[in-house]
Amino acid sequence: MLYLTLRQYEYVCAVGRHGSLSAAAGALHVSQPALSAALARIEGHLGHPLFIRRRGSSMAVTPEGRRFIAEAEALLADAARIEDPAHPRPARQRLHLGCFSDLAPFLLAPALRALREAMPDVAVSFRAEGFEAIISGLLKGQVDLALTYDLGLDAGFHRESLFDSRPHAVMSTDHPLSRGAPPDLAALTGYPLILSDEGLSAQHMLGLFRTRGLNPVVAHRAATLELLRSLAAHGEGVGISYARPFHETSYDGMPLLCREIADPDLGESVILVRHGAGPVDGTTERAGQVLAGLFRPR
User: Fold this and answer.
1) Domain tally, the chain
2) Tens of pLDDT along 251-293?
């Protein structure tokens, strides 16, 4: 016997659609306390929250909630179709993939191709953004899985390591550090640096220096990896980046040199991450398997 009724499924979908109890109650023509009590019963039955309650009546959908709503909307569409054969069929399953912007030129296109080949019945969308936007998307249930570095994530996220990356110093071909032994962080401290202007990335880079008692001078913060490379190629400083394109010229054709930083303990994991402690739906689980198989070293 089913515990939840179609009306209760409509309640959850309405709260997700309107973003607040008051607006959803108005649309459903029920009282807000009645809707709140019904939602509490539904979440109690499922064993995990569908929404995060915020100040006032504002509601944010959890990852489990977004998956539940997607399946509930498909169920309601099927029920409507049974009553009316002319009703359109429900949409395909969906997967929302996030990717850190510096990694996106290297990982996003192959990830999308692999997912679409392995899961042709799933509609895959993506967003390439900075760390904080990716984390926000995961928390709000707007992103199911993300490819990123293991920075700024607490215990509420499930991580799966894919491969390790090491930082490189990016410089003009006539820079003093272009010759001799690979530079370490102490050597880089003697020159102006170019870092990403992405908050967590810059904090992480500066933290590598400060844990060694070094205080580098930051000359520029670049909005994109290619801007960082262009500034370095023109002698504006030494760029530091974990991402390394295969070509050794900037966008405007200036030659540049990438040298791995010599300190042994600077590796950072590229991870596949999702948010939420509840059960993982089959689509997300399968997508994780596809991406792990694609990017893990063989």
Assistant:
1) 3
2) 999 999 999 999 999 999 999 999 876 667 889 999 999 999 9
State the residue range of the domain holding 251: 168-266
Torsion angle, alpha carbons of 128, 151, 145, 161, to 10: 120
- Are 277 and 151 within one domain? yes
Q: Which of 83, 105, 129 finishes a domain?
A: 83
Q: What is the pLDDT of residues 98-108, one digit of tens each?
A: 999 999 999 99
For the cut 80, the answer to whether the pLDDT of residue 86 exceeds it is no
CB 168 within 8 A of CB 259: yes
Extended strands (E) in 130-255? 145-149, 157-165, 168-172, 193-196, 218-222, 238-241
In whole angstroms, give the CA distance from residue 15 to residue 225. Answer: 40
Look over the chain and give the mean of its residue pLDDT values, rounded to a whole number: 89
Instruction: Give 101-164 as a DSSP string.
Output: TTTHHHHHHHHHHHHHHH-TTEEEEEEEE-HHHHHHHHHTTS-SEEEEES-S--TTEEEEEEEE
Encoded tokens for 281: 């739906």
- HSE-CB of 10 using CA atoms within 13 angstroms: 12
Residue count of the chain? 298
Interhelix angle 104-118/282-295, rounded to 10 degrees, is 130
Residue indicated by tokens 């071909």 = 173
And the tokens for 172?
Answer: 């003009």
3-state secondary structure (DSSP) of residue 287: helix
